[in-house]
From TrEMBL:
GO CC annotation terms, alphabetical: periplasmic space
Keyword field contains NADP: no
Keywords: Glycerol metabolism, Hydrolase, Signal
Organism: Croceibacterium mercuriale
InterPro entries in UniProt: GP_PDE_dom (IPR030395), PLC-like_Pdiesterase_TIM-brl (IPR017946)
Gene Ontology BP terms: glycerol metabolic process; lipid metabolic process
Stated name of the protein: glycerophosphodiester phosphodiesterase
Matches recorded under Pfam families: GDPD (PF03009)
Family label: Belongs to the glycerophosphoryl diester phosphodiesterase family.
Record domain GP-PDE: where: 22-338
Length: 343
C-alpha cells in the first residue's frame, strides 16, 4: 500500500496546492530546533506544516509508553546530575552490545517525571541547549492529546509514526512494547490502514506480530549495514533483494530505509526505491538533516560541521527518486523545499 495514495491529509498539503509526496515526517519532532522527543519539538513541527510526527517509544517500569530515542537516557535527560538516581546507573546488554547508563524501564513514570530533557547533540545544535531543563519526557498519551488538539485547531490531519524500540530486549524486562503500542493506539482510535498512524520497527519478528495485532500500516526499518537485532542471521542486505522485499511485504506496508540506500553517492536514484514499489511497498527515507555533518560533501556549505548546507537540494534528489515520505529533523525547511517545487 503506497502511503501517498492514502487520504490521510484532507485540508493539508493537497489543499495548499503542494505535491502530496514526498510527505514530511518530523523526526523526533522538529529536533533541529528543540530538544528531541519533547512536546515542544512536536508542536514546533506541527507549526512548520509536517504531515506526520515521529515519537520513538520505550516503556517505564510501570508499563507506560514514553518518548525517548533510546531506553538509555543519560544523554537526553539530566539524570546523570541527579544524586537520588545515582544507584540506577547500570550496565545492560542490549541488542548484543553492553551499554552503561540509566534506563527508562528502571524508572516509574512518577520518577521519570522529575527529570528534564536536554539536547542530545549540543556540539552541533548549540541553540537547542537554551531549552535544556524546560521539558519533561512525554507519554504517548500526551503526544496523542497534543495531536488531537492541534488537529482541532488547524482543521488538518496530523499523522503519527511511532517507532517501537528494542522490543526483543524489552520482552526480557517484562514488557511487550509491540502489544502495548497497538493497544494504546487502538484505544485512541487508530485501528486500520486508513487511519493517520503507522508503527515502525527495525526488528523483523515484532512487525510480523503486529500484523496480527493491528490493522495499522507497518514500516519495516532497515539500515545500510548490519542485521535486525532479533535476526542476526538475516542481514539487511538480504532483506533488500527481490525475494527479500517480497517476503517483507507479507507483513509490512512500508520500507523505511537509510538515505544511502535510496540515493547513489552522486545523488541519483538508487534501484531500491523502484524495487520496493514493485513489491508493493511504499518507501520512507531517513534522515534528512540540514547540518553539513549530515550532508554529502557536494551539498555542504563551508567547513563548519554545524553550519547549514543545501538541504533543499537533498530533498529534491529524494523527490526525484520517488520516495514517498522523508524523515527530517528540519520540517520547516523540508516543507519549504517541497513548496518550492522539490517534490
Amino acid at each position: 500500500m503506497v502511503l501517498a495514495a492514502s487520504p490521510l491529509l484532507p485540508g493539508a498539503a493537497q489543499a495548499q496546492g503542494m505535491a502530496a509526496t514526498p510527505l514530511v515526517i518530523a523526526h523526533r519532532g522538529a529536533s533541529g530546533e528543540r530538544p528531541e522527543h519533547t512536546l515542544a519539538a512536536y508542536d514546533r513541527a506541527i507549526d512548520a506544516g509536517a504531515d506526520f510526527i515521529e515519537p520513538d517509544l520505550v516503556v517505564t517500569r510501570d508499563g507506560v509508553l514514553v518518548a525517548r530515542h533510546e531506553n538509555e537516557i543519560g544523554g537526553t535527560t539530566d539524570v546523570a546530575e541527579r544524586a537520588e538516581f545515582a544507584d540506577r546507573r547500570t550496565t545492560k546488554v542490549i541488542d548484543g552490545a553492553a551499554l552503561t547508563g540509566w534506563f527508562v524501564e528502571d524508572f516509574t513514570l512518577a520518577e521519570l517525571r522529575t527529570l528534564r530533557a536536554r539536547e542530545r547533540i549540543p556540539q552541533l545544535r548549540p541553540a537547542n541547549v537554551r531549552f535544556d531543563g524546560l521539558y519533561q519526557v512525554p507519554t504517548l498519551a500526551e503526544i496523542i492529546a497534543l495531536v488531537r488538539a492541534r488537529e482541532a485547531e488547524t482543521g488538518r490531519t496530523i499523522g503519527l509514526v511511532p517507532e517501537i524500540k528494542h522490543p526483543t530486549f524489552l520482552l526480557t524486562q517484562g514488557h511487550d512494547i509491540a502489544a502495548l503500542a497497538a493497544a494504546e493506539l487502538a484505544a485512541a482510535g487508530y485501528v486500520d490502514a486508513e487511519d493517520a498512524a503507522l508503527i515502525q520497527c527495525f526488528e523483523v519478528g515484532p512487525i510480523a506480530r503486529l500484523d496480527g495485532l493491528t490493522g495499522l500500516r507497518l514500516v519495516q526499518l532497515v539500515s545500510a549495514e548490519g542485521a535486525p537485532a532479533d535476526r542476526p542471521d538475516l542481514p539487511y542486505a538480504a532483506m533488500l533483494t527481490a525475494g527479500g522485499l517480497t517476503e517483507m511485504a507479507r507483513h509490512a506496508d512500508v520500507l523505511g530505509g537509510e538515505l544511502s540506500l535510496l540515493l547513489q553517492p552522486d545523488g541519483t536514484p538508487a534501484p531500491l526505491v523502484a524495487a520496493a514499489h514493485a513489491a508493493g511497498l511504499a518507501v520512507h527515507g531517513w534522515t534528512l538533516r540540514r547540518e553539513n555533518q549530515f550532508l554529502p560533501p557536494a551539498l555542504r556549505r563551508g567547513d563548519d560541521p554545524a553550519a547549514p548546507g543545501d538541504l533543499a537540494a537533498r530533498w529534491a534528489m529524494l523527490a526525484k527518486a520517488g520516495v514517498d515520505a522523508v524523515f527530517t529533523d528540519n520540517p520547516a525547511d523540508a516543507v519549504q523545499a517541497r513548496a518550492a517545487g522539490g517534490g
